[in-house]
Amino acid sequence: MSIAEFQVYSVEEADAAGGLCAVRCIGGVVRTGQVYAAGDARLGLRDIERHGNRVTSLRAGQAARVRLTGAMTALLTRGQVLTAVPPGGHALADLEAWLATDPPLADEPHPLTLRSHGVSGMQDDALPDGMRLRWGRVALAAVDRTAAWAERHPLDHAIDRAGVRAYLIRQFGPGPGLGGDPAGLCRELLDLIDLTPAQAAAEGLAWRDLPRRRIRHLRRIKLLLNSMAAVRPHLTGAPDTARAVDAWAGVRAVLP
């Protein structure tokens, strides 16, 4: 597939947030939500207007007016060619700045792609710890964006967030500026469970006789328990929370 590119005819209006440009697609398919390189800067393509109508894409040879995000829009010149940045080409600082704007879910990188980059970065032991922690925050933001994009079940969203948070705590230890608060994580997860340990164990022992939706619910509880178990060694300063987590220790084995 050709790389998406467009050529600038003119900058019609611009400010610190971005601007409106007349352009022509010269390669690939230009789509709303893509990110384009202008030197070292990154510009987001927010809207496309063609013949007075809003469209979502342009093909080679088609001209349109596009609204870009990014202060560099004001410095674009006639004839300048902008090339779409592939998902793997986004630098950490660019992604952090982009996420700070709360971009629409349709913008690239796609939530699932962003999540893949975030998780990969936080697990890369060749990187400094500080950078891995920053990638972890990108991963958490991607989990939230994925949940909104896919309209995920609230417990599935909580499971995904807990998995990232538990990993950061295990790898970098508890505390502000490190992996986070293990006791706070466990309390949040315990609040999401609508059964007592005894009730969950009773249902778990007979899970094959339960309806499918109930089996799914028990599986979600088990995944929440997995994250709590992962950070249990870091609960030495929270005895009440530790006891609450320990009450579930024997239940995981009987859940589906």
* Continuous helix count: 8
Class inferred from helices and paired strands = alpha+beta
List the helices and strands in order.
EEEEEEEEEHHHHHHHH
Q: Care to count the β-strands?
A: 9
Radius of gyration: 23 Å
- Binned, the helix content reads 40-55%
Question: Biggest β-sheet: count, sense, barrel?
Answer: 6 strands, antiparallel, barrel
| Mean pLDDT reading | 91
The number of domains is 2
Strand content: 15-25%
Distance between the termini: 44 Å
What characteristic shape results from the CA principal axes? Answer: elongated
Low-pLDDT stretches are none
The largest beta-sheet arranges its strands as 1-2-8-5-4-9
Explain how this protein is built.
This protein is of the alpha+beta class and 256 residues long. It folds into two domains: 81 residues, Translation factors (Elongation Factor Tu (Ef-tu), domain 3); 163 residues, no CATH class. It is 43% helix and 21% strand. It is elongated. The relative contact order is 0.09. The model has no long low-confidence stretch (mean pLDDT 91).
Give keywords.
two-stranded antiparallel sheet; alpha+beta; 8 helices; 21% strand; 256 residues; 6-stranded antiparallel barrel; 2 domains; Elongation Factor Tu (Ef-tu), domain 3
What can be said about this structure in brief?
The protein has 256 residues and is α+β, with helices and mostly antiparallel strands. It contains eight helices and nine strands.
